[in-house]
Design brief:
The complex is a heterodimer of chains A (165) and B (506). Chain A has 165 residues and is mainly β. In chain A, 6% of the residues lie in helices and 58% in strands. Chain A folds into 2 domains: 2-87, Glycoprotein, Type 4 Pilin, CATH 3.30.700.30; 97-164, RNA polymerase II/Efflux pump adaptor protein, barrel-sandwich hybrid domain (OB fold (Dihydrolipoamide Acetyltransferase, E2P), Beta Barrel), CATH 2.40.50.100. Chain A starts with a strand and ends with a strand. Chain B has 506 residues and is of the alpha+beta class. Helices cover 37% and strands 23% of the residues of chain B. Chain B is globular and about 80 Å long. Classes of the chains: A mainly beta (165), B alpha+beta (506).
Chain lengths: 165, 506
């Protein structure tokens, strides 16, 4: 099975040859790969070198953490990659932006109103969690759409708070 | 002289565990208190007795001084240790304990009150001849217009700070007049939310400043000693992230150390201080130093001092509270070797340090020579959004600063916490930073000169290994999904398939 894995804008063609061999960009490695104690922790021995990593999936991306470095990897097989390229990277710019709670907490205030024009970097909402007040900002210019929360509301992680169109 | 047979610990998390340990070693029975979010916490499980306070929010639990007092009275606890945060610096609570015949393990209410109001504290120590950072030393209840009028006299950049503040909350940096009104509003809002007091004051920002603090111990007989300094300049948003003792800025300069220590002792004496406390100073590049504030409690970073002096500060606190004289004289205190503490916070260093919550599904603690972990969490523990994000402290000792850094590097590499995000990778990057190693840093280092993303130059950067890992895990998961979907058209028998599937899930 052949995959194209992208890390920091570099493509790595990873082919799984059998249980103990993979090739990366044409170079073959002897590997031993096992999960540890039923956790998203993996021990990988590559040509005799031992690595211990935490590998987890977050919003369509694989995150690999080891030796103090975090790698975010997009893993696609050849078919998926062709499919994505044929669709092109269109649409994302004009889509509405949904502000989601990055953590559970309490809404302290919502300094914007529906219909208000906002500029990239403006504060949309202040969320308190773990005794810190966090200012959540808009990543782009736009107009505030529906505001779904009010100050004092408790929210869970990934709840949609408001939209910017 | 009271012999404490039972002590109530009015706190949670790692610090409650730390205090329980000291009591255990002294043969004192312990009482824990807990909120609904903490029923399964370590401090509840370690204590001899445990009593519920109320719902998760602090206001309804750990800040309920009345309930804590009545539990102390009911259980026959002779003393209350407040830890840090919550009720630790509330003079009214300390007074309430006294009135009920319960010893508050901390300073007298008058000393808490004198140091607790930052403006009063500055006046008091200034009168005792200790230099303070220029700022609005008034009564602390200036309105916005007054603050704006005073700002040009102090000069920019300046800090807006909460009168009742601490821990960087209710604090904002102002670089010019135009942005000042909005920042004052933000500081007041945060101060009001954190301390129930929206009063703020202004303070000149000392540039290139280092944050160096001195641990002191004072007994009821008027003996005051200092245990040397701690360097706390590694901060983010005015929150300390890493501390070391001694300060690499002071190093061998024992004269300066003794000068700083003597001033700290004088500041403590100015308010008739008793028990353990910390005097914080700002030190500029020419070694001019200014009094910043006094923390009238046990500090998060006290273990670094413990490792280099050999003094158990919590046990000393209990000793002093029992009315005994200090165990040590100033000339007995020597700093040996080097200690570094990394605060392990549940926050995502790759995503602007936003807090991270969730259940810890796996953890592996670093051990071995010279390593100490003060933690309040374990496998299966749920980190909730109700309290601060500090989940544990990793402290190492080495003969030299170099050895301590290398030891911290290896301990961080061993430390695994799975289930939520932590700032361990941040500390790992910091330990590799040439500026940190070369002691070329001040309080603005993390925000201005440090990037966790500058990984590519690092010798531990192995993207091809990461690619193999990500691909193998993705591949395994895709295969598993395919098995589930194609259930109907399997070529092997159902039993064989089930066995294989079970093995995969193990």
């Amino acid at each position: 099975m052949k995959y194209v894995t992208n890390i920091e804008e570099h493509d790595y063609t990873v082919e799984i040859l059998d249980d103990h061999h993979v090739s990366v960009n044409g170079t073959t490695y002897e590997i031993d790969f096992v999960p540890v104690s039923n956790q998203p922790v993996y021990s990988l021995i590559v040509n005799g070198e031992s690595f211990d990593a935490h590998v987890f999936y977050d919003e369509d991306i694989w995150q690999v953490l080891f030796q103090g470095n975090l790698y975010t990897a997009l893993v696609e097989d050849e078919r998926e990659k062709r499919l994505r390229l044929s669709l092109g990277g269109a649409a994302s710019e004009r889509e509405e932006f949904l502000l989601k709670a990055p953590m559970p907490g309490m809404v302290v205030s919502v300094p914007v109103q529906p219909g208000q024009t906002v500029k990239k970097g403006d504060v949309l909402l202040i969320l308190e969690s773990m005794k810190m007040q966090n200012e959540l900002r808009t990543p782009r210019d736009g107009v505030v759409g529906r505001v779904r929360v009010a100050s004092g509301d408790r929210v869970e992680k990934k709840d949609t708070l408001l939209s910017v169109e | 002289m009271p012999m404490f047979s039972k002590v109530l610990v009015a706190n949670r998390g790692e610090i409650a565990v730390r205090i329980l340990r000291a009591c255990r070693e002294l043969g004192i029975r312990t009482v824990a208190v807990y909120s609904d979010a903490d029923r399964q916490s370590l401090h509840v499980r370690y204590a001899d007795e445990a009593y519920r306070l109320g719902p998760a929010p602090s206001r309804e639990s750990y800040l309920r001084g009345d309930k804590i007092l009545s539990i102390a009275l009911k259980t026959g606890a002779c003393a209350i240790h407040p830890g840090y945060g919550f009720l630790a610096e509330r003079a009214d609570f300390a007074a309430e304990c006294q009135a009920n015949g319960i010893v508050f393990i901390g300073p007298p209410p008058s000393a808490i009150a004198a140091m607790g109001d930052k403006a009063v504290a500055r006046q008091t120590v200034a009168r005792a001849g200790v230099a303070v950072v220029p700022g609005t030393e008034g009564d602390g209840s200036l309105n916005d217009e007054e603050l704006l009028a005073l700002a040009p006299q102090i000069g920019f950049p300046l800090l807006v700070k909460a009168v009742a503040g601490g821990g960087g909350k209710g604090m904002r940096e102002v670089t010019n007049m135009e942005e000042m009104p909005a920042l004052v509003t933000a500081a007041r809002r945060e101060a009001e939310a954190s301390f129930g007091d929206g009063n703020v004051y202004l303070e000149k920002m000392v540039e290139g400043a280092r944050h160096i603090e001195v641990q002191i111990l004072a007994d009821g007989a008027g003996n005051v000693i200092h245990l040397g300094e701690r360097e706390c300049s590694i901060q983010r948003r005015h929150q300390k992230i890493l501390e070391e003792s001694p300060s690499p800025f002071i190093m061998e300069d024992n004269d300066f150390r003794q000068k700083l220590g003597a001033v700290a002792v004088r500041a403590a004496q100015a308010v008739n201080y008793e028990n353990a406390g910390t005097i914080e100073f700002l030190v500029d590049k020419d070694k001019n130093f200014y009094f910043l504030e006094m923390n009238t409690r046990l500090q998060v970073e006290h273990p670094t001092t413990e490792l280099v002096t050999g003094v158990d500060i919590v046990k000393e606190q209990i000793r002093i509270a029992r009315g005994r004289q200090l165990h040590h004289k100033q000339e007995d205190i020597h700093m040996k070797g080097w200690a570094i503490e990394c605060r392990i916070n549940a926050e995502d260093p790759y995503n602007n340090f936003i807090p991270s919550t969730g259940r810890i599904t796996h953890t592996l603690l670093p051990t071995g020579p010279g390593v100490r972990v003060d933690t309040g969490v374990y496998i299966g523990f749920e980190v909730t959004p109700f309290y601060d994000s500090l989940i544990s402290k990793l402290i190492v000792w080495g003969e030299t600063r170099g050895e301590a850094i290398l030891r911290m590097r290896r301990a961080l590499d061993e430390y695994k916490i799975i289930g939520l995000r932590t700032n361990i990778p941040f500390h790992q990057r910091l330990m590799d930073s040439h500026r940190f190693m070369g002691t070329q840093y001040d309080t603005r280092f993390v925000e201005e000169r440090f990037s966790i993303h500058a990984a590519e130059e690092s010798k531990t950067y192995h993207p091809e290994i990461a690619a193999i890992m990500a691909t193998l895990v993705a591949h395994q998961q895709a295969e598993r999904a395919a098995h589930v979907i194609q259930r109907g058209e399997r070529d092997t028998s159902n039993w064989k398939w089930l066995g294989r599937w079970e093995r995969l899930r193990k």
